[in-house]
Amino acid sequence: MTLIQMQPRPANAHPVHRTVEDAMEAACPQVCDDMTVEVALAVMASARTEHLLVCDEDGLCTGLVTRAGLATVRDSAAYTDQVRLRDLPGERGPVASPMTTMAEAQHAMRYRRLDALPVVDAQGSALGVLAVAH
After folding, report:
1. Pfam families from the xrefs (predicted)?
2. Residue 44: per-residue pLDDT
3. Residue 29: left (phi > 0), alpha (psi -120 to 50), or beta?
4. What residues contact 75, with CB distance under 8 A and at least 6 apart?
5. For residue 118, how far is the Cα from the chain centroid?
6. Where are the beta strands (DSSP E) in the chain?
7. Which of 82, 115, 112, 81 is nearest to 94 (CA)?
8. Which residues does residue 32 pair with via DSSP β-bridges, in sequence order?
9. Would you give per-residue pLDDT tens digits along the chain (134 residues)?
């Protein structure tokens, strides 16, 4: 597993018609939503990544969690070591289709202040992540 970064634009991709599929990283750590916060943080550390795709028992993407978000949960007064990813409050954020234009994805990421956006197929299975390169 590697750090997820945006790939350079292919020479034949016109910027106006470029899609998320052209820039997403397909190899991405995925975990099940029944994983505890502690285990998810350990997976992130060993994978050297700042986020994980979260999938349900059917393998469908339910969102994305970040190291910073999980650290905030772990440091809260209500935290126990039994908290699972599916138990985390709040929405998991938007997802993108591989055919979403880069302009649309960038707008959504800027508007929601996201560093990463899950990319899913029509059935909801995770294909990869579009991430801001740091």
Report:
1. CBS
2. 94
3. beta
4. none
5. 4
6. 30-32, 51-55, 61-66, 116-120, 126-131
7. 112
8. 55
9. 222 333 444 545 455 578 888 887 876 789 999 999 999 999 999 999 888 999 999 989 988 898 988 999 999 998 999 999 998 876 666 889 999 999 999 888 898 888 888 999 999 888 989 887 75
The C-alpha atoms of residue 132 and residue 35 are separated, in whole angstroms, by 26
pTM higher than 0.85: no
Instruction: Give the chain's length.
Output: 134
Q: For residue 125, what are its two tokens?
A: 């299975």
Burial environment of residue 55 by CB neighbours within 10 A (0 to 12, 13 to 18, 19 or more): buried
H helical segments located in the chain = 20-23, 37-47, 67-74, 102-112
